[in-house]
From TrEMBL, chains A, B:
This is acyl-CoA oxidase. InterPro entries: ACOX_C_alpha1, Acyl-CoA_Oxase/DH_mid-dom, Acyl-CoA_Oxase/DH_mid-dom_sf, Acyl-CoA_oxidase, Acyl-CoA_oxidase_C, AcylCo_DH-like_C, AcylCoA_DH/ox_N, AcylCoA_DH/ox_N_sf. It comes from Flavobacterium profundi. The keyword Zinc does not apply. Keywords: FAD, Fatty acid metabolism, Flavoprotein, Lipid metabolism, Oxidoreductase, Peroxisome. GO terms for biological process: fatty acid beta-oxidation using acyl-CoA oxidase; lipid homeostasis. Belongs to the acyl-CoA oxidase family.
Length: 754, 754
């Protein structure tokens, strides 16, 4: 019936009827095209038009016939690249068709698709390389685990064994009272194992091993985080405050009972109206000369202690921070041991306890409020390591400045700012493990004619997860470094260590929040079910960015510390000219070395550790100098320093970030250089490169503004980040297996039976 | 006792003893300095050194005396700017001191602080401008509310009145069973008010007003979001699937009962193994010729329906999506009404229902799994608007292509992608209202000598919240626009509207997640307490980025739609040369107009609406063209299109984002131009400027890479963003009050009694 030349239109017919996007307009476009072909007879045109009559669509049979003919044409000639080529074949190289090539190509375009896409639907593309990039660990996982655990492997494995016991199995949807008691019971088990008192002196039943204590916190954090926080409140905050701020008489009286959890207690610092600004807290401890006692008092409701862990139900005593008043003179904030409940749990007279109730997470921890109405305690209950009241009722202290004494006291509590980020990191490890292992199994979509592909093979999915994985590894080594510094600290280093701890606490908890948010979304609906744990991991760690110091406030402190370091380094910083000088120096010093570098884009250079570290150092130095410069200028312009610092707050955060990221990269690279095993070193190297380049990419606008890189380079870096993700893909599962999180802790069904 | 010249050292003494940061090193520095002053006698040196002997600190009395002397000096001469000036005064202009000026300045620096900071602690700086920038609404709030509510004010206020009734009061920590029934009862109340059937035809008891239905969803979203989703499942997904995919016989049989909630039902599309790739779902509906029935069957466990709202407890029927099989031929996915429970709630034979259990949020919604074991339903249960089986058991459809029919069916359900983003937006409005009103009251830190300052006065806090506030306003107008388009849609627009709905669903839900995350952190500990609602707002909306289409998948669809629009626009896109041509055109077209613009930084220009829109359009066009270019090149290089699209996935997301942001800005600006009231227009203008500039700032690396802006300009934009935040501050509370969220819905105690 229809001659070969008409066959040429079959691809177009098939297209308009099969394509799921075409609308009226496309049908009209095609109709017009046909009408305009004056080499066609009227009846030929009518025949063709009858095939695209929307009021009278062809039967499935006919469409299937078209499809067959197209497929056969393609199978006969695999070199076919456009539907015009098909048209040509079907029309047996009809001369007019060949002349019409441009028109056929145009109509294909007007119909809004790329020929290749249509043709490809006929080729079986099951063997796309996207389908092939699957899990294939290229290194020995246990070797990497050994590197991560280091010298703490013993205690780590001991803790893992304990929390893997059946009595530690998770249970969801417990009512809050049951949950709180469950967590309390878990803590008792841990106390029996002597995990709680690990950091206390041997003479008080402890293990005298603070390093192990941190490893315990970190490992426990693979389990329920309410347990970790309850544990940290009792043995860390309550116990260590007695140990750090008190003296022998307090150790002898309390430390053993705290360590075996026969004396549950609290750390009562924060007040409703004073969280970050602790110096401003208003609870008073007034000295009574007549009977050598203190009266602990809450002057008004907003001065009540708030969010106090262990307070709502279990706490029997508390380290209470209050302003010491003697003869109406305020001697600043000091710490006192105040009883809350008797051993039967009855609240003592003068104390009023409230319950913080339901929280976003950590509902296994009994946070509460505490109010004191002239509660009288004996003189010896003052934690008197840094200040005391002598028998004549006279204040005594080796540190005359209230300010300085206060910060010295806080300084002794810096341990909390090492435990929290290490706990946060474990939570991030759990989350990324769940997300990556699920994405490795979960298949969705795939090439035409091929089976569905693991979603971890999709570039966007890799980009969502792998930079976080790299950051987790970088942070791991950074926190190891911080811990070592803390253990070996000299008086000279104290400030720097405090700043670094504050900074890494903020950095690590923020990236944990970001990581878990991404993991939740990356796991789709499954990531929303509590059984898969992203829920609790995210909601429990959510408050980590706030407690132990609000992250934003901490970052400001870190930046101020960097500024004063900076000033010490280059004297005479009071003169703006001099700052400018130093500033320009910092800039040129590194760039002038190699002017071409701003344009270099070859892989060797982009993957070079030295290039990475230099870029980080350059950013750290320059951004710090420019902050100093801005502040100085603002003050010279007559601004109050308070206003000046407010104006540059955003800048200050970047100062702190650049400093922290430089430390993380430095430590990551240094640890890699020490790795013996080639394969392990190779995969860690890729992670370090991904970490470095994604941080640079995040800050690329800044590098461009500074002229440190040109756009050709930042674009090359973006491509390299994609490439690294692609190359890390086969090792991704191995890299999370290396965390060696116990299955019973991971627990998420999507990890084990997807 | 001590001569005036020694007085000069008092500022230094005071410093070392009062500063809370100095360590051993600083004491040594000062000691060395003193020892090196050969103009001092030996005993003078010894006296001075005795004042910085750490083993024998001065008494508080002495420190206080020093402090007094310094204060007096400063009061006598307010022009004093450095502690050297103080030294000079105290030494009564001792000649040697004046000669020593550089040494004094140096030692101050070596001690690591800026003189100004020390001096300022002696001046009362209570009147910093940071302290003064407080709430002061400069516009008439109700007028703005009227603009936001528009023609829907009637139904909006009606809904607000209902959800403000006592029976709608929140209760936290309900067990899941109670919570689910509470939400169900709430839905019954709303049904009685004829909110549920608002969109259905009048003849079936409806209000025939889809616009009002969307306004209802949006307003309900100020309340518990489990309520909104349960409501949406019943009246939107279940009811509208019957209405959109069924025919008269189904309307008559079901629509009224669905609308008054006597027939609770489900929308059973998603399967465990097929969420995003719905076309791949495996449930079958096999036609039985003998008795003209269908057998609905779940071939294997992973093909069970999952996350189905209303399934676990209340649903009696479901619209089930299944592959239609006739005589072993697969006719693609179609929809069928299948009974799940009888009216007494007993599950029907062949149906197995599971409970999804605890979720991160929305625990008031009974999501469940459904399995079918050869469940037989009558032929008329097929929703046959787009396809049917005739009495001879032959498949019939006006749309022969299975693909196309499927997407046409889905297209009729696009309403869900308008309701969800509008619901998400309301949640964001609640969160930002809580965070801003709290930050306006919460005071922490302050200038020396001044009282504490509202944290909303801190630049960093403004930067955390205000860009989100601006985005919320932009999204509000964007979703209004989408709704109008949807209501007035012509067949030609369908695809674009579907793409826009998909895109705005993703954009709006992602920014809601980001906004609420920021709000949680910005509210500190209070933001973690469930009573303040950020908890539920965040966790309930968390899944919005996944359901109704995973955001990442949706953004890919939007980008693909943009690409085909692009191809239609400029024919012959199959030739790379042509794409390049268009690409270069898109670039130059806008830049060549004004070459200097890349460096312009004056405020008038930076705040100019036209500049903003041009920058957005430029980004949209260029990034789209470059994506087309990359894909084309990759395919020419021999990549399978499937691989090519995988390589550019990340780029595709940006294509979609640029498109959506351009639409939002366009709509925001257009709506502002229509505002009559000057004051309201002024404040909205600032918000639109903040929205535009923070988006540009977010993408500034790209603008720099493209050479569309130079660094001098991007830096100026960063400053301008800070400035706009600062200027919006006094109106911030007014801007959230304009949302007019009922107090009973807002509920957060920190909003009302901080």
């Amino acid at each position: 019936m229809v001659g070969p030349k008409l066959q040429a239109f079959i691809p177009l017919f098939y297209l308009v009827w099969s394509d799921d996007l075409l609308t009226l307009k496309e049908f009209q476009t095609l109709a017009t095209f046909i009408k305009n072909q004056d080499w066609l007879s009227q009846e030929e045109k009518e025949y063709l038009l009858s095939n695209i009559d929307r009021s009278n669509p062809p039967s499935r049979a006919i469409i299937d016939k078209w499809k067959e003919e197209i497929r056969n044409a393609i199978l006969k000639n695999p070199s076919i690249a456009s539907s015009y080529d098909v048209a040509k074949m079907l029309s047996e190289n009809e001369a007019q068709i060949i002349d019409l090539k441009p028109y056929f190509l145009k109509i294909e375009n007007d119909l809004g698709y790329l020929s290749e896409e249509v043709i490809s639907t006929f080729k079986t593309t099951a063997d796309t390389f996207t389908s092939k990039n699957n899990t294939l660990s290229q290194f020995d996982v246990p070797k990497l685990t050994a590197i991560l655990d280091g010298n703490q492997v013993g205690v780590i494995n001991k803790v893992k064994a304990v929390i893997s016991r059946p009595e530690f199995a998770y249970e969801y949807g417990l009512d809050i009272a049951t949950y709180r008691n469950r967590v309390y019971d878990w803590c008792k088990i841990l106390a029996k194992e002597n995990f709680g008192n690990k950091a206390y002196p041997k003479e008080y039943g402890g293990g005298n091993d603070i390093e192990a204590y941190f490893a315990i916190i970190e490992t426990l954090s693979y389990h329920d985080l309410s347990l970790v926080i309850k544990f940290g409140v009792q043995f860390g905050l309550w116990g260590m405050s007695v140990y750090s701020l008190g003296t022998k008489k307090h150790y002898e009286k309390y430390l053993k009972d705290i360590g075996d959890l026969t004396l549950p207690g609290c750390f009562a610092m924060t007040e409703t109206h004073h969280g970050s600004n602790v110096k401003g807290l208003e609870t008073t401890a007034t000295y009574n000369h007549k009977d050598q006692t203190f009266s602990i008092h809450t002057p008004h409701p907003k001065a009540q202690k708030e969010y106090i862990g262990n307070a709502a139900v279990h706490g029997q005593m508390a380290t209470v921070f209050a302003k010491l008043i003697i003869d109406n003179h305020d001697y600043g904030v000091n710490a006192f041991i105040v009883p809350l409940r008797d051993s039967d749990g009855n609240v003592v007279k003068g104390v009023t306890i409230g319950d913080c109730g339901y929280k976003m997470g950590l509902n296994g921890v009994d946070n509460g409020t505490i109010r004191f109405d002239q509660v009288v305690i004996p003189k010896e209950n003052m934690l008197d390591r840094f200040a005391s009241v002598n028998d004549n009722g006279v204040f005594e202290s080796p540190i005359p400045s209230d300010n300085r004494r206060f910060f010295t006291m806080l300084g002794t509590l810096v341990g909390g700012r090492i435990g929290i980020p290490r706990s946060a990191l474990s939570a991030a490890k759990s989350g990324i493990t769940i997300a990556i292992k699920y994405a490795d199994k979960r298949r969705q979509f795939g090439p035409d004619g091929g089976s569905e592909v693991p979603i971890l093979n999709y570039r966007i999915h890799q980009r969502r997860l792998f930079p976080h994985l790299a950051t987790i590894y970088a942070t791991h080594f950074g926190l190891q470094y911080l811990t070592r510094l803390f253990l070996e600290k000299t008086e000279e280093q104290i400030q720097e260590i405090e700043a670094l701890a504050a900074g890494l606490k903020a950095y690590s908890t923020w990236s944990t929040t970001a990581t878990l948010q991404e993991c939740r979304e990356a796991c789709g609906g499954k990531g929303y079910l509590s059984e898969n744990r992203i829920d609790n991991l995210k909601n429990d760690t959510e408050i980590y960015t706030t407690f132990e110091g609000d992250n934003t406030v901490l970052m400001q402190l870190v930046a101020k510390n960097r500024l004063s370091e900076f000033r010490k380094e280059f004297g005479k910083m009071n003169s703006l000219g001099m700052i400018n000088y130093v500033f320009e120096n910092a800039k040129t010093a590194l760039t002038e070395k190699n002017p071409i570098v701003t344009r270099t884009t070859d892989a060797t250079h982009l993957l070079d550790f030295e290039f990475h570290l230099q870029a980080f150092q350059y950013r750290e130095k320059t951004i710090l100098a420019s902050a100093a410069k801005r502040i100085k200028r603002l003050i010279d312009e007559g601004l109050e320093p308070y206003d000046a610092f407010n104006v540059v707050q955003h800048h200050m955060i970047e100062v702190a970030q650049a400093y922290l990221e430089r430390i993380l990269l430095e430590q990551f690279q240094e640890n890699i250089s020490k790795v013996q095993d080639q394969a392990v070193q190779a995969v860690l190297k890729q992670l370090a490169q991904l970490f470095a380049l994604s941080v640079i990419e995040k800050n690329k606008a800044w590098y461009l503004e500074e002229g440190y890189m040109e756009s050709v380079k930042t674009k090359a870096i973006r491509k390299m980040v994609n490439q690294l993700c692609w190359e890390i893909r086969p090792n991704a599962v191995g890299l999370v297996d290396a965390f060696a999180i116990p299955d019973s802790c991971l627990a998420a069904p999507i990890v084990f039976n997807s």
